[in-house]
Every structure is written in C-alpha cells, then in structure tokens.
Amino acid sequence: MKLAILSREPKLYSTTRLVQAAEARGHQAVVIDHLQCNLVLEKGAPGIIYKGAPLEKFDAVIPRIGASVTFYGTAVVRQFEMMKVRTAVDSQSIIRSRDKLRSMQVLARAGVGMPKTAFTNYSDEVPQMIRQVGGAPVIIKLLEGTQGLGVVLAETEKAAQSVIEAFHNLKARIIVQEFVAESKGADLRAFVVNGEVVGAMKRQGKEGEFRSNLHRGGTGTLVKLSRAEKAAALLAAKSLGLSIAGVDMLQSKRGPLVLEVNSSPGLEGIEKATGLNIAGKIIEYTEQLIDKKKVKDVKPKAPAPMPDHQAE
Ligand code: ADP
Ligand code: MG
I need a surface site. Which of 86, 88, 256, 268 has the fewest CB within 10 A? Predict the structure, then answer.
C-alpha cells in the first residue's frame, strides 16, 4: 500500500511513528505537507499539485491536521476524497469535531455524560449562567482554546463574573462549565481506532494545577478503563463519526464526563504512557479501509446527524 501522511512536520513524533509503523507493515509512506498542496478543480478531474508537480497516486491518506489550519487542511483531505483516495478520517468529521460547541451538542444528544455546560450570545445575565451550571467554582473556557490555554477556574461567583464579562467584552466565545472537583486535576485520554479503545492513559496535572494537559506539565500513565469509561469513549467517537479519536474524560461520582474529542490526537503521550504501538493500530485500520468489509461503521445512525450549516 502507498500511504500519504498529511503532516506539516515530518520530524514530529506522531509523523515519524506513522511512517515507521507503515514501513514495518511493508508499506510505503510519504509525508505530504498539506499547506504546500495546490488544489486543481476541473470537470471530472480533480487533482493536487505538490511542490510544482502533480501528486503521485496514493492508496490511502492519514490526515494529521492541526487546529490552526483546519480550513485548508480539510480542503486538501476533501480533494483526496474527490480523487477517490481512502482517508483514515474523513474531512467532514474533522471539521465538525473542531467546533467544540457543536461537538458538545451532538454528544449531549447522543447521551454521552459531560460536565453541565452553558453558552450564551454575550448575554449580560451572567449570574444566571453561573447558577445554571451549579454555582461557583466554575470553569470558563474559550471555545477556540487548545492545550489547556484558555481554560480558567473561577473560585468565586465574583471572579467568574469578572472573567466572563471580560471575555464577552472582547467578543470571545466562551462556555461556562461545572467544575468537577473530584477529578483532582486528572483526566483520562482514551485513544479510539475503528470502534475500539486501543490505549488509554491517565493524565495528572502538576502540583497545584487543575489542568492535566501534558503541554501544561501534566504526566501520563497507563490506566485500565472501566466498562463505563470505554463505552463513553466509543459512543463519543461514534456520534461524531470519527474513526480515529482521542477522547478526554473526567472521572466523577456520576461516571465518566467527556470534555472533548480530538480528531488528530498526538501519539507521543499515549505511546510513551502505555508502551503500546498505537501508530501500528492506525496503519492496521488504514489497511482495512482498502478491504472495506472489516471497517466498523462509525457514522452515527439514529438520530440523524446535525446539519453542517452554521448561521452566518
Ligand atoms: P483544552 O482543549 O485546552 O485541552 P479542555 O476542555 O480539555 O481544554 O480542558 C483542559 C484541562 O482542564 C482538562 O484536561 C482537565 O484536566 C481540566 N478541566 C477542563 N474542564 C474541567 C471541568 N469542567 N472540571 C474540572 N477540570 C476540568
Ligand atoms: Mg483537552
């Protein structure tokens, strides 16, 4: 099989591991920088020009699209789809999963547990919003944030009110969320490939930090998920139509609470914490894409998917 790994950075751990894992299974893997792809649209003959020449033919592509380049990256993935190249994660699912609010709405409807969350159109009824999620302390999150940046813990109602008002003034979109204190600065990352949890780790924030992100100094260790945690991770990935997903959950008294679902989850943390060959699992799944019968249907069945259109 000839594989294209869409990645901006060939030296990144996740990229090199995917190349290695593909080669170990007897495939050829080429790293393609999606931002250097020019898309040619022509009746019946969509193509890609890469570094000045038409791109060679691939059997499958594995997209690793960073959050900052979702628009162009997913356009490139879509172009591969138009050229009838199989993709490990489809463009539409990546786009949908990048909209945190939409994802939470879809997950809530699918019956996935989550911290109680509120969202408004810059409303000045801030105390009401805080009360909706159970009162202070509350978590306030920038909708566009990643790696723990843009997640604030407001200990008191006064503090929450000032922070929310400040963000609203800046026209920053935020959600207000119940603070799940019993998770004690830790969360779970379940790595899902083709409807199976192929690895899981517990991430613990550094001393005094409520955010467990590895980028904020957290550490990951191998963990065995409970049946409920596994089920929540699988349902979350499936309801967003993601064949590859990193599902983040908090452990709480009322069971696992999903925080977010990542469509290009990093491999370094999970492989190092678990000692598992997660890259190999992704390649194995990509092989099965060619042999379609073995691929589980990750598309949500009922209820129907949410519309993709967003109000302008
Ligand atoms: P990001 O996209 O920036 O990673 P997250 O929503 O995943 O944002 O939040 C970052 C971290 O903050 C989580 O991994 C978790 O440790 C902590 N956290 C987030 N939301 C809550 C919450 N409602 N209660 C307790 N801790 C939380
Ligand atoms: Mg996170």
Answer: 268
Q: Which atom of ligand 1 is nearest to the CA of 115?
A: 23
Residues 147 and 200 placed together within one structural domain of the fold: no
Count of other CB atoms within 10 angstroms of residue 24: 12
Q: Could you tell me if residue 68 is inside a domain?
A: yes
> Ligand 1, residues 183, 187, 247: which to mutate, most atoms within 8 A of Cβ?
187
CB 60 within 8 A of CB 29: no
Could you tell me the pLDDT band of residue 43, with boundaries at 50, 70 and 90? confident
Contact 213 CB / ligand 1 (< 6 Å) = yes
Query: What's the gap in Å between 211 CA and the centre of ligand 1?
Result: 6
Residue whose Cα lies nearest atom 6 of ligand 1: it is 259
Domain that holds residue 44: 2-97
C-alpha separations of 31 from 5, 55, 250 in Å = 5, 12, 34
pLDDT digits (tens, 9 = 90+) for 156-191: 999 999 999 999 999 999 999 999 999 999 999 999
For the chain, the residue count is 312
